[in-house]
Write a structure and sequence with these properties.
The structure holds 2 protein chains of 2 kinds. By secondary structure, chain A is mainly β. Chain A has strands at 3-6, 10-14, 19-21, 23-26, 31-38, 44-50, 56-58, 64-68, 73-78, 87-95, 104-105, 109-114. The relative contact order of chain A is 0.33. Chain B starts with a strand and ends with a strand. The chains are: A mainly beta, B mainly beta.
């Protein structure tokens, strides 16, 4: 079984500051990794995903994430945030073998960007 | 195709009533998922269909919950004898394969009073 831990439930930052949202996962098999963003009263939108290959993955809205297999981490970063980045961010994993195709989500990190 | 559609967006019901939600996935996606999300939590997996076959169900899906995808297109999620603890956002997602992006609908917010 897989599990995802998002280490910070809330992250407040000032506009134009860098941000890192941390995600660690636990799995006995190889996994695909995803970051999703959720704006209030909306569904989830994919920011980026890691399937294989380069461990640095670039996504939409200037976000990127780095897969670290030895530390089982997939931290999300942005060098300079905007007010519009205020939202909840979810890290998720799914089994690469396809045996169980569900996405397992962390509890989320609420990013608040202040002016 | 306008993405994943869920209906209704909001539902208020009295405890003990039955409710049914509908999800229309992206048409070429054969995989469909239901999730439940409560305040301050991430989405929790409920069940998964590949075409019309229900391949996995979470232990969260009690006997009061049932989901169908009769023709491998739209899906319904029914909750019988609703309880206050069922109040949550119910999210539907679809995807074309295990490594592809899951597209989410905007959810149905259920309030049981």
């Amino acid at each position: 079984a897989q599990s995802v831990t998002q280490l910070d439930s809330q992250v407040p930052v000032f506009e134009e500051a860098p941000v890192e949202l941390r995600c660690n996962y636990s799995s006995s098999v190889s996994v695909y990794l995803f970051w999703y963003v959720q704006y209030p009263n909306q569904g989830l939108q994919l920011l980026l995903k890691y399937l294989s290959g380069s461990t640095l993955v670039k996504g939409i809205n200037g976000f990127e994430a780095e897969f670290n297999k030895s530390q089982t981490s997939f931290h999300l970063r942005k060098p300079s945030v905007h007010i519009s980045d205020t939202a909840e961010y979810f890290c998720a994993v799914s089994d690469q073998r396809g045996g169980s195709e569900k996405l397992v989500f962390g509890k989320g990190t609420k990013l608040t960007v202040n002016p | 195709d306008t993405g994943v559609s869920q209906d209704p967006r909001h539902k208020i019901t009295k405890r003990g009533q039955n409710v049914t939600f509908r999800c229309d996935p992206i048409s070429e996606h054969n995989r469909l998922y239901w999730y439940r999300q409560t305040l301050g939590q991430g989405p929790e997996f409920l069940t998964y269909f590949q075409n019309e076959a229900q391949l996995e169900k979470s232990r969260l899906l009690s006997d009061r919950f049932s989901a169908e995808r009769p023709k491998g297109s739209f899906s319904t999620l029914e909750i019988q004898r609703t309880e206050q603890g069922d109040s949550a956002m119910y999210l539907c997602a679809s995807r074309g394969g295990p490594s592809t992006e899951a597209f989410f609908g905007q959810g149905t917010r259920l309030t049981v009073v």
